[in-house]
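Notebook, p. 212. Picked up where the previous page left off. The plan for this session was modest: take the two constructs that came back from the sequencing core last week, fold each one, and keep the raw output in the notebook itself so nobody has to go hunting through shared drives later. Recording the first one now, exactly as returned: residue sequence, then the structure token string.
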Amino acid sequence: MSIKEYPICYDSLGDDGDQLHRRWELNVMGTGLLFERYGSMCGWSQLKLKKNGAEVYRIVKPWGSEERTEFFFNQPTRTYMCNQLSFVEYLISVAEQERIPEAQEFVQAGLDAEVEKQYRKHLQKIIDTKTPLSN
């Protein structure tokens, strides 16, 4: 897995006014993506994944709340409470292994089978795979 952290100016703001805190470039199965963390040293409020400058994924956690909402291509997809496996962990696992793990691996780790199917479908769209990613 290839991850490169970029230094940023700490007064940088995202397009929605949140403060950009950290930025990484990562390579996932040959596709270059930009991963951004918004918030402060104390916590995050949004995590965004961009491809070619366009946002493809975002997870939002309002300050003081444990509710998280995931968006793919600006469409709300999943809302849940507290720490659960998110697409971020899913994506990092794929990048680290340089392959799409079997669906059962994620389900055994606590990810709902239907959510895993959604993640697999969105990952395919993000990395422009022409062949469906099988379970």
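Okay, moving on. Second construct, recorded in the same format:
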Amino acid sequence: MLSRQRRSTADVEQVLDGLLSNADQSMVNAFTGGFRVAQTKLAISKVVPEDVAAAALESAQIVALAILVREQLDPAAFATLYRPFATVLPGPGYQPPPPVDRQIAAFLARLPTLSGPNEAEAAAVAKVLSEPPKSPAPPVPGALPVSAPLTVDPATHYQATWKAVIEAAHKSGRTMAFRAAQDGAEMAAPHDGSGIVGHAGVAAGGIFMRDVLAVEQVLLLYEPFAAAFPYESLQ
């Protein structure tokens, strides 16, 4: 959900839309309606709340359509569209992650290069993950009804996952090394007021403790930087 809200992703989706006009229409229809889509929607509804199932289905459809025209897409554009599934369901060219120390070193080496639109986007995602959604205002008599908020709150999951990582580091006796990875990332991140310094430390901490985390948790902690330098590229 976060990945598809990025401006960089939206730009690539526009490219995809143009390519689909020349694709096999029967194949396009198969991914956008009919029995296959109904099956996918049913499967998704079993694992995510109903109010986010539509967003998850749309994300899966975008990836399927990108695969359909993959040969016409720039590899970087395809990687952008496939990113939400890249580590959970490895795609073409996937390489197993390298040792943790090498992966963290690659992350620290790239942090100082973060600038411009990439940095602005990272800061925007970091803000979403730092601020739980505000409670809806009380209804105004005569006003149109407001849709209920999504039950999946990225900020709450982000904070809960980070707390779990800290506890795991303490229990495993790796607190000092964990803090060193975190501090190194915070020092390497741009100190220009963008607000991503602390989030860089969180991302490095998630990578350091990846052996005790579900991959989805690692990716959530890394999400602010996923567009600038995808997790799968930290080789």
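Notes on construct two before I forget. Residues 121 and 230 are 13 Å apart (CA to CA).
Flagging for discussion at group meeting.
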